[in-house]
Amino acid sequence: MGWQAKNIKLSYAGAKILPLTDSVFIKYNAFKKQFGEDGSIVVIGVKSEKIFQKETYNKWVQLSNELQKLNGIKGVLSIGKFFELQKDTLHQKFTVKPLPGKTITTDVEMDSLKSKLNQLPFYKGLLYNTESNATLMAVTFDQKILNSAARNPILKEIEEKALAFGKSEGIDVHLSGLPYIRTATSKLVSNEFVLFLGLSILVSALILVIFFRSFSAVFYPILVVIMGVVWSIGTLVLFGYEITILTGLIPPLIVIIGIPNSILLLNKYHNELKKHGDKQRAWQITVERISVTTLIANVTAAIGFGVLYFTGSELLMQFGSVAALNVMFTWLMSLCLIPAIFSYLPAPKNKINGTHKANFLDKILTKTDHLVQQKSATIYLVTIILTLVSLIGVYRINVNGYVVDDLPKSSKILTDLKFFEKNFEGILPLEISVNTKRKNGVMSVSTLNKIDKMEEMIAAYPEFSRSISLNTGLKYATQVFYNSDTNFYRLPSDFEKNFILIYAANSGKGNGDMLTNFVDKPKQTARVSFQMADIGSKRLDQVLLELKPRIDSILSPKRFDVTLTGSSIIFSKGTDYLLEHLFESIGLAIVLISLLRLAQFKSLGIMFISLLPNIVPLIITAGLMGFFGIPLKPSTILIFTIAFGLASDQTIYFLTRYQQELNLTNYSVSKVITDTITETGVSMTHIALILFFGFGIFTASTFGGTVILGFLLSITLIVALIFNLTLLPTLMLWLDKNKKRKKISEAEVAKNLENLDDH
């Protein structure tokens, strides 16, 4: 696994949330196959009046030319590197004249070029904003290297050159675009991968030191979970997966979830040593009795992850399957290696025939038992009130996801994105394909006018930029046909169209590229491209709902097949998809874990009752999200299935001990409840604290979603502990108070108590 793990790679593609079979994703892939990648542009933006001073402008031109020469860059478009169409009446074609074409040496030349730019409406709102003096440079990547590590050094060089320009001119430079955002995010994921792995090991080591105060009891469990980490990374490679924002969390999760296995084994081992001091016998009994309990606990944890596989989302399938498998691998390694290693080590002398002194935790558990025995009505009432209040919060939950909202508000990625949203209505791609359902259907003037009407309607929304399409190209060509008169920046008439298209057809490959990018070969389907702000999935859904009937009123569905797609829509639909399948995955986890409990305890009553201490904490967590304005989005949706699986572990620990003592003694149900709370409650609390502080490390993340994930998981597991030590025993007391039990002799009771699993 170590050999495989060295081949792990970071993912540079966008998160694949939607399944490959989803209709929205199928349409998106069909669009990319027809017209190419939609998110291939990096933009560099500045806002300064100096940009039209000849010295600064010449440096902007130089920057544009330098970036154009970089390997992997397909093209650069800016006010320092744009083109002007000119009419060649002799050959009946358009020629492309690069501007500025030379170094600007005088203010008169600068004013002339600026005037020329203002006479080209094609570029207005695309490359510059006349109101704010903002301008941008669009750098288009070669699609062959777009989603690979090869783009990293190119992006780094682009960033260095852009920032060097800004420094030399004293101008703030802003960079954005999907390739830039994804690369910067991948870099943060890489950094946090190392950070969280280190923090998880450190926190686990500190907890082991507090619990055992022994070098060997710290070193060897840590060694085992590190092996589990190696296995998890090796598994990712073997499955052909890469490190994403989610799979990057698996190694620290393996550490956090794997350490309790060692603690349970060592606790039981030390307890056995206190009884008889025989190391060999102590380990034999430990393995016999802890293996089943930890097996079931780890299976429930694995179910919490594994059900994510059935969402159909590639992102969650990768995370869920690898996490579930390696939870079980790590459990198996702990069960095999910890006893084997410690059987060679000397038994700790302070544990042999030792005595236990009541501590603060023991006193809290004693009071908890009193509450269960004497105040059951209070527990029920508090549970009902908390649940009802939380349901109000659940009703207020906002389902909303942003492309970059997991980044802190102070992040340069976010502030740069806001710059482009303020000055150019954003940089996230929204693509529209208009299928006319007939060959050459796009070239009809009537169709072009309808598409133009649709473009104007969409561009009127403040969330969208002006469009780029065949229409904008034809408007520019019409203007040039009429000697660059801005009054003729419009679509050609049916009569004019024939002349203009003849000019375009004779213009060679340069203009053919434009047609290829925005019209398919049969001229049946047209592409319209917008840039948009990161408005969130909720607002985007509303806008798309509004647009659908308005587009249909312009382009009748009987004659046209209009598809809205692009990375923005894929992300929005991914958020909706995850929410839709959240309830399915939680429902599946509940069913599987319930069946596991039914198989273990063979009681329908226990199966149903034991669900409440696990479900109520999830409702409370969802309520907190509603009250504190934490939206449901891809990063926070995971909380519920993971928390349910881990909270179920605590229920297993309690019920296993309770059922054992109930079956092996003559004690009353009340006495058995007391013993279970005061004895098993210690291990339950220890494990809950490990998970609390373990998941707490994720609050150190740069990503807001990961911070919330860590915080809410920690809170949920502590709340689950409280309900498993209060509500669960109260319900069991009610369920079994009249239960008939066979009498067992005092000698058998004594023998059973000696052998009872008291981890």
E-strand count: 11
Give the number of helices: 26
Structural class: alpha+beta
Low-confidence stretches: 509-514
Proportion of strand residues:
5-15%
- Overall radius of gyration: 33 Å
Helix fraction by DSSP (H/I, runs of at least 4): 55-70%
Protein name: Efflux RND transporter permease subunit
Subcellular location: Cell membrane
Domain SSD: 222-344, 606-734
Transmembrane segments: 193-212, 219-239, 245-266, 287-310, 322-345, 377-397, 581-599, 611-630, 636-656, 677-701, 707-735
Description:
With 759 residues, the protein is an alpha+beta fold. The chain has 26 helices and eleven strands. It has helices at residues 2-5, 23-35, 54-68, 107-118, 151-169, 178-212, 215-238, 250-276, 279-306, 314-344, 360-374, 376-395, 412-424, 445-459, 470-481, 494-505, 509-518, 537-554, 567-601, 604-609, 612-627, 634-664, 669-696, 704-725, 727-736, 746-755; strands at residues 41-47, 73-77, 82-88, 93-99, 128-129, 134-141, 173-176, 428-435, 468-469, 525-532, 561-565. A hairpin with a 4-residue loop joins β5 (128-129) and β6. α23 runs antiparallel to α24 (704-725). The longest helix is centred in the N-terminal third of the chain and has 35 residues, at 178-212. The model is unreliable at 509-514 (pLDDT under 50). Pfam families: MMPL. Residues 222-344, 606-734 form the SSD domain. It is a multi-pass membrane protein. It is found in: Cell membrane.
